[in-house]
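Tip: read the tokens left to right.
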């Protein structure tokens, strides 16, 4: 009704950028200027802009696995090379400093860290982030992308920290990516934002100016209201997620062939189902020992949709989301158990 339906500045409205700056100061103890902020059409575009801006042909980008599905492909679109560092359930889905050190080469340009993680829910502690920072200090050319999209979805009482909180001296090399999709359940509004060194943000803005231009004007107003409004709206959502998380993990671990660890954040469970896969194979119920075959079986026989772990670089796992009702979760897990009996 106010007619705010025209183009905005490519990097975002002054009001939303001010709200983002205030959020970083309030929630993370980080200070930025308006020239260090870029508002985009979701967190995925923030990462796309970053990679297009800083990765040249042949540059390497270190991505811990399991990873969000878009990271490697976005790197490939920039003619970069994803370097996947695997971290399975036995190490809590978190890479070690030794693994990071071994993965860095003279061609490494960017290191990506997503905590809390999609798909695993793994959360790095301050000490773990500090240890990774010790490695990164030895390689000043390597930039850092901290994907904090699930910052507010924490399933324990440990305060959120990112790598800049643990290693403030890495400020000039770190891009912090976030958005309103998860904390405020605004996925369809498509608003993400990035903060970091002014020169890199300028290049990212140039990339965006030749793709989408600004994020939707109306969505920017909504995002500003979310960031500036009463943050108490997050609490009941978190309480529900904690209850569902406890149910899902315990229920999955009661199914033969499943091994699921607690998630520290986000709203996913990521069980190891390799024994269950082999059991179905031995019974000639599936034809291949893969998580894709396993997921297709659950979909076709139990009408339950899960995401194969191989989509996230982790064969033999599946991802389940508990961002649905308790009743739906109970129904789904009963169907899974029956299909595997």
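Filled-in amino acids:
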């Amino acid at each position: 009704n106010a007619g705010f339906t025209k183009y905005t500045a490519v990097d975002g409205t002054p009001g939303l950028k001010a709200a983002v700056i205030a959020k970083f100061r309030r929630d993370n103890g980080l200070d930025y200027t308006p020239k260090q902020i870029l508002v985009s059409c979701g967190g995925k575009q923030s990462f796309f802009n970053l990679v297009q801006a800083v990765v040249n042909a042949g540059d390497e980008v270190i991505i811990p696995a399991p990873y969000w599905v878009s990271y490697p492909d976005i790197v490939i679109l920039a003619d970069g090379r994803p370097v996947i560092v695997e971290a399975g359930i036995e190490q809590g889905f978190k890479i070690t400093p030794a693994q990071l050190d071994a993965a860095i080469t003279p061609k490494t340009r960017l290191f990506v860290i997503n905590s809390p993680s999609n798909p695993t829910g793994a959360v790095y502690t301050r000490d773990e982030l500090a240890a990774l920072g010790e490695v990164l200090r030895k390689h000043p050319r390597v930039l850092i992308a901290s994907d904090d999209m699930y910052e507010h979805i924490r399933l324990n009482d440990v305060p959120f920290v990112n790598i800049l909180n643990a290693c403030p001296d890495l400020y000039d090399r770190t891009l912090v990516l976030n958005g309103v999709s998860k904390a405020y359940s605004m996925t369809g509004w498509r608003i993400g934002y990035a903060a970091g060194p002014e020169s890199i943000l300028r290049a990212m803005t140039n990339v965006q100016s030749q793709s989408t231009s600004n994020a939707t004007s109306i969505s920017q107003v909504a995002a500003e209201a979310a960031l500036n409004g009463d943050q108490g709206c997050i609490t009941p959502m978190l309480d529900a997620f904690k209850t569902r998380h406890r149910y899902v993990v315990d229920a999955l671990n009661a199914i033969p062939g499943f091994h699921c660890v607690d998630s520290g954040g986000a709203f996913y469970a990521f069980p190891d189902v390799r024994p269950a896969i082999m059991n179905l194979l031995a019974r000639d119920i599936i034809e291949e020992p893969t998580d894709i075959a396993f997921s297709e079986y659950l979909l076709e026989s139990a009408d339950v949709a899960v995401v194969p772990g191989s989509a996230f670089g982790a064969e033999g796992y599946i991802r389940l989301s508990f961002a649905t009702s308790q009743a739906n979760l109970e129904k789904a897990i009963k169907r899974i158990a029956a299909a595997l009996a």
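The two ends are 57 Å apart (CA to CA). The chain has a mean pLDDT of 97.
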